[in-house]
Specification:
Length: 387
């Protein structure tokens, strides 16, 4: 069902039709699957190798490391990494490990530095990873320094985000991974002009796919979020553009209801919908009228029953917003708190429960319905990568 980009007005018209008829876009068929995908260490190892070790995934927004020497550290499925801005403006991903005897070279979650200096025997590296000093080198012995730099992972900045392939022997080409449709869509959003207001990670005792699935799901809104999201968004009504490895989907806000009886004509109804994107392999990007929200789900390096979710809010800069600093902060702070409350009080308890349930020995098989189109796309693409 791969399709080309449809104008938003056409998609919104289709959405209204669905709402009137109590229908939604549908996938070709119902899928049956095994709970093994959430608990099996072998499947998890294959995902680390064939998914995260081969295709680019988003690790940060460029504004999180704005100046040369700015860095963040994170644990990817295969590697502990340092993401660091270079003096030429590019970004590198370096394995966070000293090449002498393996100490963790950077312990801070974020910061700014001129060199990375090891706490164990004080070797130091330039921010591009080059080995710079070996302490007491007259006694250490001759080595080829050029091959003892910090190990570099394929890394690229594109569409405002920093992408990494989590394997040093891999290659990165974000444009071709995104494909012409999604690359064009992201380019059009000018995400590089925004800044991250806040980014936070949550270590959850849940398989990353259970988490990712919940944030591609338009079917649970009314049942899991009756007093929050469901007050504003319709349940189980979606128009999907399937781009293969990625997808875009819209759902109606309740403010659209006044157009159920009446033809909206040429009116712009974009404020009456939510627009979301599945960015393979492990992110959901939500486009709001005045900001974006990115959700990323990363498997734990060893345990299939754990993952790290990251949430970040990308917003117009203070200068571009035209707001006072106080108003700007207050506005986004409030937004952030609402998002956190829904996560912690509504989604996480449900998903932790799901993980403990699928760990049952006799769990039987599970289903994805035709209405769960984006989830179907997510699992279809994952299966292709794993095959
Ligand atoms: S382990 Fe880093 S200097 Fe020895
Ligand atoms: Fe939810």
């Amino acid at each position: 069902m791969t399709q080309s980009i449809a104008p938003r007005a056409d998609r919104i018209r289709r959405l209204l039709e669905h709402l009137r008829n109590e229908t939604t876009d549908e996938f070709a068929d119902v899928q049956t699957f095994d709970t093994k995908r959430y608990v099996d260490p072998e499947i998890a190892a294959r995902e680390r190798e064939r998914v995260f070790g081969r295709v680019p995934s988003i690790v940060a927004h460029g504004s999180e490391v704005p100046r040369p020497g700015d860095f963040i550290t994170l644990r990817l499925p295969n590697n502990n990494v340092i993401i660091v801005r270079q003096s030429d403006g590019s970004v590198k991903a370096l394995v966070n490990m000293c090449r002498h005897r393996g100490a963790l070279i950077e312990k801070e979650e974020k910061g700014r530095c001129r060199i990375f200096s090891c706490g164990y025997h004080r070797w130091s590296y330039d921010t591009d990873g080059t080995l710079r000093t070996i302490t007491r080198d007259n006694t250490f012995g001759d080595i080829d320094r050029s091959v003892q730099g910090l190990v570099e992972l394929p890394c690229e900045e594109r569409a405002g985000f920093i992408w990494v392939v989590d394997d040093a022997s891999g290659e990165i080409d974000v444009t071709s991974w995104l494909g012409p449709e999604m690359d064009g869509i992201l380019e059009g959003y000018e995400l590089d002009k925004l800044i991250t207001f806040r980014a936070e990670g949550f270590d959850e005792p849940v398989n990353w796919k259970i988490m990712q699935d919940a944030f591609l799901d338009g079917y649970h809104v009314q049942y899991a979020h009756p007093n929050t999201a469901a007050k504003h968004i319709h349940t189980n009504v979606m128009v999907v553009e399937d781009f293969g490895q990625h997808a875009r989907f819209i759902a109606p806000r309740k403010t659209i209801d006044k157009w159920l009886e009446e033809d909206p004509g040429d009116r712009d109804l974009s404020k009456n919908i939510t627009e979301s994107h599945y960015l393979g392999p492990n992110s959901t990007l939500l486009r709001q009228p005045d900001h974006f929200q990115l959700l990323t789900f990363r498997p734990h390096p060893k345990d299939p029953g754990r993952c790290r979710m990251e949430m970040r809010l990308m917003v117009p800069t203070l200068e571009d917003s035209g707001l006072s600093e106080e108003k700007w902060n207050h506005n986004w702070e409030k937004n952030w708190k609402i998002l956190l409350a829904v996560l912690h009080e509504e989604d996480f308890p449900l998903l932790r429960g799901a993980q403990s349930a699928v760990e049952s020995t006799n769990s039987g098989s599970l289903l994805l319905g035709r209405n769960e189109v984006i989830n179907q796309i997510f699992h279809r693409e994952l299966a292709k990568l794993l095959a």
